[in-house]
Amino acid sequence: QVQLVESGGGSVQAGGSLRVSCTASEYTYRTACMGWFRQAPGNEREGVADILTFSGTKLYADSVKGRFTISQDNAKNTVSLQMNSLKPEDTAMYYCAAGPFRGGRCSYNYWGQGTQVTVSS
Fold this sequence. Notes:
By secondary structure, the chain is mostly beta strands. Helices cover 0% and strands 54% of the residues. Strands 2, 4, 5, 6, 9, 12 and 13 form a seven-stranded mixed β-sheet that branches.
């Protein structure tokens, strides 16, 4: 069982920056994909960014391209999401996820508990 521990998040005014991080209990095929998802009250969960830990390939949702950056620190089994130019609509609970890469796609089987990001106008 992969354990994911999130840190960071918090509250900031629009235009500000926040960073969230996720440390995995292992860095194996089970964490070949690591990503961030978010869910605001009343909304469906949406993918924000993914990273393929074996290749460093990064993917972003259109809504965050150019503002968010996902990165990894292999030595610490940690994936981080740097969020700049934050908007009120970025307000959500942010979840870290991990899973294997199968059939050309990520299969997210493991989830963190979530960390709140609140952006005020």
